Automatic annotation (TrEMBL):
Low complexity composition bias: residue spans: 504-519
Domain of life, source organism: Eukaryota
UniProt-recorded name of the protein: AB hydrolase-1 domain-containing protein
Gene3D superfamilies: alpha/beta hydrolase (3.40.50.1820)
Spans annotated as Disordered: 499-535
Transmembrane region(s): 127-147
InterPro entries named among the record's database cross-references: AB_hydrolase_1, AB_hydrolase_fold
Keyword terms of this UniProt record: Membrane, Transmembrane, Transmembrane helix
């Protein structure tokens, strides 16, 4: 007690805030200097340092003040935590707690999957509180740091042209918008139907394909807007079965009598797969380009899933998780990006990471002009619901597995047939879609990683995979004349040009020519002689 009574006010303050590194002068013998003394005024706390002592800089004083403040805030926080814990000790029995218990449990169950990303020895409640606090501080720092006076160029507004698409009415009353390129229906040797990918429209098709190439191969390319995109009517509750039927009705409406090819690029790949599954009798073959796979497919191995998820950016992973768990939250992201009415970057809007060739292509003026026009047409209706439906379709149950497209026929075998099959390598019969399936995959694709195509190849044994070294997601499919020629040569062989309806009809139905054999001529001659003798 005697020691405490002799403590100066400087020392008492030091015991409260801890050792800050600041030393306060004291009178000889440990007693505080008199308030009006020269030592107190001229040297020491307010004035100059006492003779023989080194003056502290402002940086050391600021550091000491910051450390003291942090220590006091920490003690204050611990005190508030203890008070809150004591105050809520019996709160679980209150009326408010009983009302909130069930919704809180439901929300916790839905969010429990996020605990997988936390260390096993950490309390999830405290961890997520810390994460939320850090995120809040980061947002504050970003907000403070965003006060730059440098003029920033405002993004341009999207220009949406007046409606000009061809449309036809489906059996359920909806209208589907479409576009045709290449050869007319009566002269087309091959017909291709191309459903577009996410954030695209009927204007995409095969970007940059030349009319001369379509003419050379006698090909007709038909593209259309998915429900709710472009000028097509929405279709609430749509699925991949209805998507395949839309393609079937489109082909019938446009007079495509023979089988047609389907072209599936990126997210449009799942619509192309659905055509092979649900209308295989109308499809001649499939041309796939980095087709999207369902990252939650039950038949995908853990290693295949890991390879796919590892190649995606953090934001893209978040988009898939939201589409799977909280699809209603996607509207917020869509309205702040491509539905904002302003132009933006492809990789930013779609949360993509790009390889070298893709970045070079996306910086080209030709691609930017195409991209702006295609996106503007895609968001014409300004409704987020079709985009949410498309995102949910990609990560939900498709209604079929890729393994259902080509299956080995199951046969009932007796004992003798079973024993015989053990010693013979007879091929079993395949059922499903048996036409050609070609898949082109860029090995530097970071949007649809090569592991997705490896999974598709494992599920569809009859598919032919073309691996493209150093190619990305866009570089081979978009604006590459030589690539397009290679694709058409692979699908259709040597170019034969369009059909000539007049020539084809003459070859199919030639004029009848009467041919007789020598024996028939002799028989007729004998009959004529007999007739003349009778006369």
């Amino acid at each position: 007690m005697a020691a405490a009574a002799t403590m100066t006010w400087h020392e008492e303050l030091a015991t409260l805030v801890g050792d800050t590194g600041v030393r306060l002068p004291a009178a000889a013998g440990g007693a505080a200097p008199a308030p009006n003394s020269a030592a107190a005024v001229g040297g020491g706390w307010y004035g100059e340092e006492e003779e023989g002592k080194v003056e502290e800089g402002w940086a050391q004083q600021a550091r000491g003040f910051a450390e003291s403040t942090a220590e006091m805030l920490r003690e204050l926080g611990l005190g508030v935590w203890d008070v809150a814990a004591q105050s809520l000790a019996g709160a679980e029995d209150s009326e408010l707690a009983r009302r909130l218990r069930r919704p809180a449990a439901a929300a916790g169950k839905r969010l429990s999957f996020m605990n997988e990303y936390l260390p096993e020895d950490r309390d999830p409640v405290r961890c997520w509180v810390v994460v939320a606090a850090v995120a809040f501080v980061a947002l504050l720092v970003l907000g403070v740091g965003g006060g730059d006076d440098t003029p920033v160029e405002q993004p341009k507004k999207l220009y949406i042209s007046p409606p000009n698409a061809k449309r036809f009415q489906l059996p359920d009353g909806r209208h589907l918008a479409y576009e045709e390129k290449g050869i007319s229906a009566d002269r087309a040797r091959f017909s291709l139907v191309a459903p577009h990918s996410f954030l695209s429209s009927r204007l995409a098709g095969i970007p940059g394909i030349s009319s001369s190439l379509l003419e050379e191969f006698g090909a007709r390319l038909v593209t259309y807007d998915l429900p709710g995109f472009g000028e097509s009517d929405p279709h609430p509750g749509r699925n991949l079965n209805s998507s395949a039927l839309d393609m079937l009705h489109l082909a019938d409406a446009l007079g495509i009598v023979d089988k047609f090819w389907v072209v599936g690029y990126s997210g449009g790949g799942m619509h192309a797969w659905s055509a092979l599954r649900y209308i295989p009798d109308r499809v001649a073959g499939a041309a796939m380009f980095a087709p999207m796979a369902n990252p939650y497919d039950s038949k995908m191995t853990k290693d295949e899933k890991r390879k796919i998820w590892d190649r995606w950016s953090t934001k893209r992973k978040l988009m898939h998780i939201l589409a799977r768990r909280f699809p209603s939250l996607l509207r917020l992201f869509y309205h702040t990006s491509f539905l904002s009415g302003k132009q933006g970057q492809t990789e930013s809007w779609l949360s993509l990471s790009m390889g070298k060739k893709d970045k070079t292509l996306l910086e080209a003026p030709m691609f930017n002009a195409f991209w702006e026009k295609d996106v503007a047409e895609s968001v014409r209706q300004g409704d987020a619901q079709p985009f949410v439906e498309e995102a949910v379709l990609q990560v939900s149950d498709w209604g079929f597995s890729l393994s259902d497209i080509q299956m080995q026929k199951k046969e009932d075998q007796g004992v003798f047939e079973f024993i015989k099959s053990l010693f013979s390598q007879a091929e079993r019969e395949w059922v499903g879609f048996l036409g050609p399936i070609h898949i082109w995959q860029g090995m530097d694709d970071r949007v649809v990683p090569p592991s997705a195509t490896e999974f598709a190849r494992r599920m569809v044994p009859g598919a032919t995979v073309h691996k493209l070294l150093d190619e990305g997601h866009f570089s081979y499919f978009c604006f590459c004349d030589e690539c397009h020629r290679q694709i058409f040569s692979t699908l259709f062989g040597t170019p034969q040009g369009p059909l000539n309806p007049a020539l084809e009809s003459s070859e199919v139905a030639p004029e009848p020519v009467e041919e007789t054999s020598p024996a028939y001529d002799e028989e007729v001659a004998g009959q004529e002689q007999e007739t003349s003798g009778v006369a």
